[in-house]
Amino acid sequence: MDDTLRRALTLLTESGKTATLAQLKARVGAQRYPMPVLIQALQQWKVAPQPLHEEVAPEPQARVAGAPSNAELQQQIDDLRQQVAELRDQLAALKPR
After folding, report:
1. Where does this protein have coiled-coil stretches (predicted)?
2. Each residue's pLDDT tens digit, 55-80
3. 14 Cβ partners below 8 Å, 6+ apart?
4. Helix 21-28 crosses helix 3-14 at what angle (to 10 degrees)?
5. How far apart are CA 77 and CA 57, in angstroms?
6. What span, in angstroms and rounded, lies between the C-alpha atoms of 68 and 6?
7. CA 24 → CA 14, 66, 73, distances in Å?
8. d(CA 5, CA 33)
């Protein structure tokens, strides 16, 4: 069994959860492993768990392909704030006093 799958199953077990296919799939990503591999790993784990004996650190959340970075999001927020300010100024100029 792949170490990544063992790590995911170990983390699920250590967190007090019963490892299920859905939880394993969510933990490692369905695109990374084909479903038959996930099913086989889960079946092997249920028959004979082989937890990693090393200190297991949670895997960092992978960035979704095509998702903007934090800096890009912050730039978009700044741009939108500027647009809102400009629109407010335009609206104020249109309102009769």
Report:
1. 70-97
2. 545 555 656 667 777 888 888 999 99
3. 51, 56
4. 120
5. 33
6. 30
7. 14, 24, 30
8. 9
Q: What is the domain partition of the chain in residue ranges?
A: 1-60, 63-97
Enter the tokens of residue 13.
């077990």
Confidence of residue 4 (pLDDT cuts 50, 70, 90): confident
Which helix H or strand E contains 75, and what residues bound it? helix 70-94
pLDDT in tens, 17-43: 888 888 888 888 766 788 888 888 888
Q: Give yes or no for a contact between 56 and 11, defined as CB atoms under 8 angstroms apart.
A: yes
- Determine the Cα–Cα distance for residues 95 and 97; give it in Å rounded to an integer: 6
Whether the model clears a pTM of 0.70, i.e. scores above it, the answer is no
* Token code pair at residue 28: 């490692």
